[in-house]
Design a protein that fits this description.
Order of helices and strands: HHHHH
Subcellular location: Cell membrane
Helix content: over 70%
Radius of gyration: 22 Å
Bound molecules: adenosine-5'-triphosphate
GO molecular function: ATP binding; kinase activity; metal ion binding
Keywords: ATP-binding, Cell membrane, Kinase, Lipid biosynthesis, Lipid metabolism, Magnesium, Membrane, Metal-binding, Nucleotide-binding, Phospholipid biosynthesis, Phospholipid metabolism, Transferase, Transmembrane, Transmembrane helix
Structural class: mainly alpha
Shape: elongated
Number of helices: 5
Membrane topology: Multi-pass membrane protein
Pfam family, one: DAGK_prokar
Length: 150
């Protein structure tokens, strides 16, 4: 079977490819400000429509607030912040994947649609479990100390 070896992409070639791909976009953000505006719109959409996203924001805010209140080390607060951010980012990706799947298959059953949605939900679940484990490991000892010292 003949092997097609593509020539290395030159900057000019890359520019042409990117331009062609962006032709399919209904609209392209023309400035950094507009990019932030659309990103914020996505976050607001997820907040308004996804109950899990609202729960995760509440729990993450509580965990970060507690870690500051309990005077955890900066690196510990950072670890809680990273795991919290990961959960929220994956929840947004989960919402994006759900929308793309629904756009593609509409209200028909498809095994690949099921796999895509189940795996996206699984990613959120794994990140949430890890975040809970990390938060419990770092927050429980100072909480117990605080309660016992009362
Ligand atoms: N078009 C489809 N074809 C096959 N299975 C589907 C389809 N749409 C949804 N499902 C199944 O139903 C489940 C729930 O779908 P839904 O769109 O509510 O996603 P979800 O992961 O429950 O959403 P959320 O993350 O908001 O809780 C999916 O995980 C998947 O197993």
């Amino acid at each position: 079977m003949p092997q097609h070896v593509s020539s290395p992409a030159t900057p000019k070639h890359l520019e042409t490819v990117i331009k062609k791909e962006r032709e399919y976009s209904w609209q392209v953000a023309s400035s950094l400000f507009l990019s932030f505006k659309y990103a914020w719109a996505g976050i607001i959409y997820a907040f308004q429509t996804q109950r899990n996203f609202r729960i995760h924001i509440g729990v993450c805010t509580l965990a970060i607030g507690l870690s500051i209140f309990l005077h955890l080390k900066p690196v510990e607060i950072a670890v809680i912040g990273i795991t919290s951010g990961l959960v929220l980012a994956l929840e947004l990706l989960n919402t994006a994947i759900e929308s793309v799947v629904d756009l593609t298959v509409k209200q028909t059953y498809h095994e690949l649609a099921k796999i895509a949605k189940d795996c996206a939900a699984g990613a959120v679940l794994i990140s949430s479990l890890v975040a809970v484990l990390v938060a419990a490991t770092l927050l429980l000892p100072p909480i117990i100390t605080l309660i016992l010292s009362e």
